[in-house]
Amino acid sequence: MTEPVLSIRNLTVDIPTRYAVLRPVDNVSYDIAPGEILGVVGESGAGKSMAGNAVIGLLNPPAHISSGEVWLNGKRIDQLGIDALRRVRGKDIGMVFQDPLTSLNPLLRIGDQLTETMLAHLPISRAEAEERAIAALEEVGIPAARQRVNSYPHEFSGGMRQRVVIALALCAEPSLVIADEPTTALDVSVQAQIIALLKRLCRERGTAVMLITHDMGVIAEAADRVAVMYAGRLAELGPVRDVITTPSHPYTHGLMGSTPLASKGLARLHQIPGSMPRLGRLPEGCAFNPRCPRAQARCRQDPRPVIEAGARAACLYPMDGAAPEGDATPPNAGARHLPDTSPTGGRPGADAGLQGGNP
């Protein structure tokens, strides 16, 4: 088998506060192969972006990796110093952020930003870097690239700026790209163009991609596999077609039910009851049990389930198994009203698209 570009093993991120230690990422493990796009999806506050920031070393203190390992191309990078990690960023890992305007330096011309990035990471001359900058803009579909290379970011539209950001992320030939909500600030038609562009470029170059989003439509269009996160943990991990068509975890099933589909016509969308628990007041047992229609006594008593070898979902009663009998309880029956002792206990996760609204 091909060695994975990125390998995350039991990654845990802690945020110490004066009241408690919050854990936005809890025991997460997955691999991304060369040329593969792994979609990471979940509600706001699920830990998607925090996991991506942990990989690239952009956690804001006091947040830190408390346990686990991050391997890139067979080398462990979570223990690297600041200078060594800075050399990894840009050269081995490219980043595409949500807002293309804030991702670019407004005081520098587009060509200068591309050129300086390549000079910092590649053994090439300035003249070669300048030609490569023009070629990079042409590759991402910027018209009249030789003239536009001297433009400033504010002279581009939002879609064009995002194309520039993708060119910037790929210009140093990284083996991994982390794309954090790369289409959220764009029009729907532009979103499709950006996703198609990112997908094509990474397939051609064999670049691995971690695509972080809350939009299941983007996942279905772009990803090869999908990792569904809930309250800091992986709820489900598997091939995108299997996860979308036959979801195994009740949370994934709820996400798919809340996604508008043309085949549903005017049928009312499903809504997952309640909201994601705050980090400072997670329920006992499975964190999803207060919202889960299949919750049993074990779900509230046993430790939080994890994805076992050969399984696709971290669930005691997955959707592809037999329906539970006997101790079935309605949603929210197991909710525990604990005092929220943390002023930064996490957001409630009110992403409209993941609670019955538009994705």
- In N-to-C order, the SSE pattern is EEEHEEHEHHHHHEHEHEEHHH
Please state the overall shape, judged from the principal axes of the Cα atoms.
globular
Number of extended strands:
10
Trace the largest sheet across and list its strands. 6-7-8-3-9-10
Helix-strand makeup class:
alpha/beta
For the sheet with most strands, the description reads: 6 strands, mixed
Percent range for helical residues? 25-40%
Q: Write down the Rg.
A: 21 Å
Beta-strand residue fraction: 15-25%
Distance between the termini: 36 Å
> Mean pLDDT, rounded to whole units?
85
Count of alpha/pi helices: 12
Q: What are the segments in which pLDDT stays under 50 over at least 5 consecutive residues? A: 322-359
Task: Write a structural description.
The protein has helices at 48-56, 82-91, 100-103, 110-121, 126-139, 145-148, 158-170, 188-205, 216-222, 240-245, 250-257, 297-301; strands spanning 6-16, 21-32, 37-41, 64-72, 75-76, 93-96, 176-180, 208-213, 225-230, 233-239. By secondary structure, the chain is α/β, with parallel strands linked by helices. It has a domain at 108-173. The strands form two sheets. The protein has a six-stranded mixed beta sheet, with helices on both faces. A hairpin with a 4-residue loop joins strand 1 (6-16) and strand 2. 44% of the residues are buried.
Spell out the blueprint of helices and strands.
Layout: E1 6-16, E2 21-32, E3 37-41, H1 48-56, E4 64-72, E5 75-76, H2 82-91, E6 93-96, H3 100-103, H4 110-121, H5 126-139, H6 145-148, H7 158-170, E7 176-180, H8 188-205, E8 208-213, H9 216-222, E9 225-230, E10 233-239, H10 240-245, H11 250-257, H12 297-301
